[in-house]
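User: Fold this; tokens only.

Assistant: Input:
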Amino acid sequence: MPSIVPVPNELTKPFWDACKDGRLVIQECEICNRMQNPPEDKCWECDSPDNLIWREVQGRGTIDGYVVIYDSRLEAFWDQQPYNVAIINLLDNPDIKFFSNLPGTPVDQVPVGSQVQVEFEQVAPDQFIPQWRVIE
């Protein structure tokens, strides 16, 4: 499936750099120990702007739910329709959610509740994105 190539900025660059290295990282506040995604310039919980670090997580999760896209507004995906988009709850912190099209999973056969493992798909010469694959 073709992917939209993200454009890292100063805030998101550590996340995308880790993806290039095959690692999944999440922002964490050293004051209140809260993890957050997507990254922000301050903690969502305690509002601290200076105590955010990047923490590597195991890259496993569970499928919380999904939708099937039959009529995408994104022209790059028209030839791939229909496709699924699943909500992934991160095992390290179920409040952290990712969205993925679950490569290898038939469109209408997404096993809600199943475990998934992150993989990194190359979408440009020096850019990788996290994708999630169902594991047995």
